[in-house]
Design goal:
Layout lengths: L5 H9 L25 H12 L2 E9 L2 E11 L3 E3 L11 E8 L11 H16 L14
Antiparallel strand pairs: 1-2, 1-4, 2-3
């Protein structure tokens, strides 16, 4: 099996976002002009499925007040991957960054459907990639 390139994963994730993969409270505000908006939690979970590593949660602050949380990943030797950082407006500042243990699926009360939808779209796109030269497959399970 050929390892996937991070660029393959990033392309598959970004092209899989939609209003239906964002939290219900973000759906009416989701736009193709800012497709990363509201996608951080489900994206971090899908990347964790594919790459392992740690889930990181920071706070989104405006004028020093917490407005929300932001999620991203840390893999390998401390390399951080954040595919949704560009969603924030200039006044929204992400602070901190705490490792959060991944909750078991049986405990998910929120965003499970959105996560499953994003995960299925990403896996479908990754599984449809053509093999690299001299390699037979890039299948991801």
């Amino acid at each position: 099996m050929t390892p996937l390139l991070l660029t393959d994963i990033e392309r598959a994730v970004r092209s899989s976002w939609g209003a239906d993969t964002s939290p219900p409270e973000f759906r009416s505000r989701w736009s193709p002009d800012n497709p990363a908006r509201g996608q951080c939690g489900v994206t971090a979970m899908v990347l964790n499925d594919l790459l392992g590593g740690e889930l990181i949660r920071g706070e989104v602050q405006v004028n020093g007040q917490r407005r929300d949380y932001h999620w991203w990943n840390r893999v390998g030797l401390g390399v951080e991957i954040d595919l949704t950082r560009e969603q924030f407006r200039p006044e929204e500042i992400v602070t901190g960054g705490t490792v959060i243990p991944r909750p078991p699926m049986t405990e998910w009360r929120r965003l499970r459907e959105e996560y499953e939808l994003l995960r299925s779209r990403v896996l479908e796109k990754l599984n449809s990639l053509p093999p690299m030269a001299n390699e037979s497959s890039r299948l991801v399970s």
